[in-house]
Amino acid sequence: MKISLSQIKSNNYITNIYLGTFLFSLSIFDVFLYSFLNINITSFLPGNLSLFFPLIIGFIGLSFIRMEYSGIKIIDNLNKHINTSNFNALLTLIIIFALLKALPPALSWMVLDANISGDTKQACTGTGACWTYIKVWFKRFMYGMYPNEMHWRINSAFILVIALGFVGYFFKENLKKYLALYYVVIYPIIAFLIIYYLISGGSFGLVWVETGAWGGLSLTFIVSFFCLIFCFPLGMILALGRRSNLPTVRYTSICYIEFWRGVPLITVLFMSSVMFPMFLPEDFFMDKLVRVIIAITLFEAAYCAEVIRGGLQALPRGQYDAAKSLGMGYWKMHIFVILPQALKLVIPGIANTFLALVKDTPLIFVVGLAEIAGMLALAKTNPKWLGFAMEGYIFAAIIFWIICYAMSKYSYNLEQKYKTER
Amino acid sequence: MNNKIKRYIPQILTILFVVLIFGFFTINAQVNMDNRGIDFGFGFLKQEASFDMQFTLLDYDGQDSYMWAYVVALLNTLLVSFLGIIFCTILGVIIGVARLSGNFLIRNSAAWYVEFFRNIPLLLQIFFWYYAALRALPLPEKAEPWFGVTYMTIKGYYIPSMIWENLNVFMSCLLASIISIIFIKIYAKKIQEKEGKQLPVLYISLGLITILPLLSFLFGGVTLDFEIPVLKQLAKTSFIFEGGIRLPPELIALVLALSLYTSTFVAECVRAGIQGISKGQKEAAASVGLNPNQILKLVIMPQALRIIIPPTTNQYLNLTKNSSLAAAIAYPDLVLVFAGTALMQTGKAIEIVGITMLTYLTISLSIAALMNWYNKRIEIKEK
After folding, report:
1. Looking at beta carbons, which residues of chain B come within 8 Å of A258?
2. Is there a contact between B360 and A264 (Cβ–Cβ < 8 Å)?
């Protein structure tokens, strides 16, 4: 029997593919069986060899598959993306096996063995998560200790505030010039009034609910919303101050910014709760929530100022010169020429600051305001619901993750958009 | 004239504004303190603190002064920051490099790691590790040994402690080897600039740093013993480990959360740094005849580090400031001990919060000053 050299080669490469694919699939199949169905098909192997068996045969399989060009799409894709070298092949296998190993326990804990029915702890009979706990406490996590029958007030206040936020989009052309005025001055005032009269109540036949009862995720939103709308104008003034050529103005701004950026938020919150009342006239009472909002606003304004300063610095000098040559003064130049361009540049940066702000709000728990982390701490120590810390924190983490991930993707998109426009 | 007024009026207004605010606060504070019978002053720092701390690096008990409590608590803060910085750097570099990998799975796992840990508030992560994950650990009597001699239990991580004899001899040997390595490096650089010869600095240094301390064991009378934690029964159902060092769960949770959270930001810095170097640099270096090792060491790294280090230092600073979240899980750091317990006991709100903020401010500003100096030093000198 005569076989030419080329035939052996082509034969070999087909065999290589078959053998490699078989070994690779076998290794994955082995781990899959072991982790999902708890069947160990390699139990006949001694000791640790059984543990490393899939890794070894998978590795051999991948090195069989590795070749310049095979003509089979899947194999070529594998080679191009996950099987470029021995080292990469090993890492690939480790990641695949780790995912296969981690998935079944996670899945069974979160879904398969979990309970969601019933209203008491006794309903949770499975070995998995007890989502009943989340279901029962859901309203508390969202609205804090706010009376159950009045949740519509929070909802409607939020809807109103959000709707008013979008009003700017529908401004007619001749009203557009008041857009900044609307967002910087009018909107915060209206939003404050809405939240004050709807959520706090006390007039128009609504029962007064003190801020101590506010809490949960809605408090997170209220705090971050007010801090954002107040810290933005303050940050703008500070950024302008830092770039001013008047020494006292500049150094005051620098001192302010560096001070707030140099201390942790938690000490700022401590300051607002224990030190700040000492600085106020004795008969002057300020609500704790208001103090906290002021503290976070002052704190975030420093970060905001640095972001806006970046935008101001990024503008070419020609813009300043052109505005000056038209005979514009300092304020005219900034309001009509510089700020509109600079603020457009820093929108992504502001979005990132806001993201950091939202992630910082759980900290208000430290001074005794029960937003979602505070409500979790409360629920966790409730004698009827002991032992469900894991579910609670995972639930809160998922909520925050969704909010923050959406925001970061949004700010990333904005960044890309403005990058191409310039 | 008109111009001068225009320059002065805003400045005077600013000063007036600042003075008015500070004056208003000071007067109020004085009135308030008079009414409550509190006097302003730092005399309390010498008084007996009379509270206990769960975990300290230096000797401390309730009879020590508030001053000493402050120092011990500050050291705890610095310990957490130090550990966090080390771990977040290691993780961050690995993840940052992995995000640029050609391997689809590695690249995407790294990207998801970053997206996952970056978008969950740090406080929730700390709570998760402390209240949920570490609470699932076994009790001391049921703990399985890790690496034979360490035990991970619900009460903390027990590791062997080192008992040195003649530690100072060992330390001076170590110091001597480090100093000689520095001199050899300087000498090698001189030789290279003069004659173009390269000395095997790495091997010499490795040799020195192992041989000299080893010699101290043989001839300097240095001995090293390990005290291994041993399980001890206190009562029928109560067990603890004795001996060794206990790393409390608060510390572990804090370091875990801080390093996982900050590593995502470090990873982004590293990625940006590596991506910031054009391919031409590598090709140019190769065409000059440098080998891959030299390319990395002499061409890529110096340029990448210039981009990586400033934002990374910023992240380290953030980590240090974030370590103050320790107060939420009762790890005795500066905020909990000083702005918490000491404040409650003495009632000196202004002084104590002031000292705490000033401490963090000092750390931040000194690192920022250092960073500015470094940036000036490494920046590309352009005409």
Report:
1. 365, 368
2. yes
